[in-house]
Amino acid sequence: MSFRIPFPAELDIDPYLTRPIARMSTAQGELFCTEPVVNPFDGQGTIEWHLGPTDTKQFSREHVYCFFGFDDRGGIMHMGILAEGDWFSGDNEGTHQMIREDDEGADVFLSRAFQEYYRRAVACSDPQKAVLYLSGMERITKSVCELRRSGDRP
Fold first, then answer.
1. What is the mean pLDDT of residues 132-151?
2. Which of 58, 109, 136, 141 is most exposed, with the fewest beta carbons within 10 Å of its own?
3. Vertex 153, ends 80 and 72: CA angle to 5°?
4. Three-class secondary structure assignment of the chain
5. Which residues of 99-127 are buried (b: 16+ CB within 10 A; e: fewer)?
6. Tens digits of residue pLDDT in 14-44
């Protein structure tokens, strides 16, 4: 992906997240994705980015915030996706974040987390859009994990 589209100036978020945007294709359609960045403030190396519609004006009004963090061995230990309308917060859990169990491997956790997020997306108020954004999150997450496995740390 080529991150060359300027970030919408009217979107008021933390300055470190105002990253360039790229167009991303998924099986569910196209969307915009900001360049993933390591959160400079949390001390844990959390990777963060935004996904949204392929129009910068619309992106400013409607986008989702994605993040995940690694353990000391490089496996994903937690992840989350924030969107309008509690699309990914779950039934009774009330949280958009998923955390790996103590006895759970990173790959098993990643599979379980995405299965649960897709279940929540299909049940939300706009399942088509939620599944589109979630497919973008999955693509970025798996790409960053592959980079880390190959030794190219983000």
1. 87
2. 58
3. 65
4. CCCCECCCCCCCCCHHHCCCEEEEEECCEEEEEECCEECCCCCCCCEEEEEECCCHHHHHHCCEEEEEEECCCCCEEEEEEECHHHCCCCCCCCCCEEECCCCCCHHHHHHHHHHHHHHHHHHCCCHHHHHHHHHHHHHHHHHHHHHHHHCCCC
5. ebeeeeebeebbeebbeebbebbeebeee
6. 888 889 999 999 999 999 999 999 988 887 7
Of 137, 111, 153, 109, whose CA–CA distance to 24 is shortest? 137
Tokens for 133, please give them. 């954004």
Which structure tokens are listed for 87?
A: 């699309």
pTM, entire model? 0.88
Q: Read off the tokens for 94.
A: 């009330």
Positive or negative, the Cα torsion across 137, 139, 143, 149? positive
Number of other residues whose CB lies within 10 A of the CB of residue 72: 7
| 146/151 Cα distance (integer angstroms) | 9
Q: Dig out the tokens for 13 from the structure.
A: 């978020």
